[in-house]
Amino acid sequence: MSIRAYIQDDLHAIFDIYDRSKLDELNFEDQIFTLLPLKDDEARLSGLMESDIYVYQDHNCISGYGAVCGNEIRALFVHPKFRGKGVGKKVLEFLLSLIQGQPCLFVASSNQPAKNLYQLYGFSVTETFETTYNHEPVIAQKMVRAVLEQDNRSLG
Question: Domain locations in the chain?
Fold first, then answer.
């Protein structure tokens, strides 16, 4: 197992993981969404590509990825068949280790499983707002992690 910086050859695996996972985060919404593949989602693809992207690779298989831009975690996706094996936690911990200051992320308000994970790592909801996915409204939340005392010591 290793987490490494993304290379261009990883793009197909990233597209595949996103496309298999994106609708899962919207599973808890009242409406049914239609997938907009990442390669066709200009805004999300642009946000991803301007980020530092890292892949979780076990042997020759990429099973998850994450992205960070400044102090914002912009992506954290795990292939469905690798969920429940600690991949998401390892990627999250890795991304957090890269961030100076106060990490933040955005999540669908109804995605309680993801929010539970983020809360375990000290994140709390600071803002609720409406956004869209594939032209459909979604209530989203900004979550921010308090800077821990040990983080302050490492910054000094």
Answer: 2-155
